[in-house]
Amino acid sequence: MLSENIKNQLVAVVGKDRFVDEIEILFCYSYDSFLEESLPEVVLFPQTTEEVSAILKIASAEAIPVTARGAGTSVCGAPIPVKNGIVLCFSKMNKIIEINTRDRYAIVQPGVINGDLQRALAPFGFFFPPDPGSMEFSTLGGNVALNAGGPRCLKYGVTVDYVLGMQVVLASGKIIRFGSRNIKDVSGYKLSALFCGSEGTLGMVTEIILRVIPAPETTQTLLVTFDDLDNTAQAVSDIIGSGILPVSMELMDKMTLNAIEDSVPLGLPREAEGSLLIEVDGIKEACDRERERIVAKVQKHGAVSVQQAQSSEDRDRLWAARRAAYGVFAKIAPDILSEDVTVPVSRVPQMIKKINAITSHYKLKSGVLAHAGDGNMHPLICADRNNSEEWERVEKAFREIFAAAAELNGTLSGEHGIGLAKAPFMPLIMDDDTQDFMKVIKEAVDPGQILNPGKFV
């Protein structure tokens, strides 16, 4: 328990209006979209880097755990304060400090919503490529912490590919800066790559310099359906293997399509065993050629129908279906587990077969959703964790899915992160010496182990 003296010190930093210890409010910061919960002792809402520094100096001196939080949209348990202590919520550090399209960067605070940055960039004809499914409410600090991806990251890459620099507060309270406003900068270690994806275990990010790029001239969107899920997966492998690089290539199986259509009638093809939502962008002539090559490829693999969006409304309808998937699955059962194992694209057909075989063996309600073009699988399992027998089957299934991904030269996470959900499975993809090396880095910057303790390192 935090003493009254420590609480008074924290109030002196942020003021009473940004200090919360009422139990009913603390519960709101005890969970994310994963299934575990743990209550913090206080929640603080800093507004400046100096306040974050002062808080961490107190926490370090008193050995108080500190967990960073943005909008709480994580699905892996990353912002859950498993050791209680302080939650630092960055929602009030939400300023877009600068947009500079001439030099192609934006400087933001960690509490800026991804979608808000997209809207701020649009009038300039620019955009920020990473587009997680939660982009309308997830924060850029959280995107950095989890190295978020999204559908269009097939072509454009994930968050780390757009981080030019950061300002970070270390556990000691020391404020450091690294990187710069320059697109090309090889001065010293690439520390942004170390902190991006570190899930708040190395420091608190208080300012981010992001690379932004011009919006494409044209976007073309296709919905392709198949009467065989294996043909769907084989088409993905063939398209990518032939050198075609769409913006995105989203796979949905029959259960996913029907779950969406049951909840949000959009005219999706209920009879399809598999579908691909494919998007290309760029100069119109290049898009036309790329679209034609894709159509030829999917037809070669037995596509039943190829539907092209004829308007922005059509395109929005198709993407509304894709982005609705998680929400509609949540209506099928009390609990939903969504993972994101990733395998080489050539192994996508094998991985989908393995997922279906495993979930079928354990008699589970499941669907497959995937950023298939980069091998990022999202198996979704619906169950009730209050049913202990069913939940045991769910846990066994995911253990086998993780092992299957590792056997196919895959990895545990493509964009969701490790957090609590997959920490026990790290040995599947990382040997002891490598894990020990991560611990050496952690010890160097957080010797008191106060930053997001209890997670993957």
Question: What would you note in describing this structure?
Answer:
By secondary structure, the protein is an alpha+beta fold. The protein has 15 helices and 18 strands. The longest helix has 20 residues, at 388-407. It is globular. It starts with a helix and ends in a 12-residue tail after the last helix. The model has no long low-confidence stretch (mean pLDDT 95).
Features:
21% strand; globular; 15 helices; seven-stranded antiparallel sheet; alpha+beta; 457 residues
Q: Note the main sheet.
A: 7 strands, antiparallel
Shape: globular
Percent strand equals 15-25%
Radius of gyration: 22 Å
Average pLDDT taken over every residue: 95
Low-confidence stretches: none
Provide the structure class: alpha+beta
Biggest sheet: strand arrangement = 15-12-14-13-17-18-16
By DSSP, the count of extended strands is 18
Helix content: 25-40%
Cα end-to-end separation: 25 Å
Number of helices: 15
What's this, in brief?
The protein has 457 residues and is of the alpha+beta class.
What is the secondary structure topology, with strand pairs?
Elements: H1 4-14, E1 19-20, H2 23-26, E2 42-44, H3 49-62, E3 66-69, E4 86-89, E5 96-100, E6 105-108, H4 114-121, E7 126-127, H5 140-146, H6 153-156, E8 163-169, E9 175-179, H7 191-195, E10 204-211, E11 213-214, E12 218-226, H8 229-241, E13 248-253, H9 254-263, E14 274-282, H10 284-300, E15 303-308, H11 312-323, H12 325-329, E16 335-338, H13 348-361, E17 365-371, E18 376-383, H14 388-407, H15 432-445
Parallel strand pairs: 2-4, 3-4
Antiparallel strand pairs: 1-2, 5-6, 6-10, 7-11, 8-9, 8-10, 12-14, 12-15, 13-14, 13-17, 16-18, 17-18
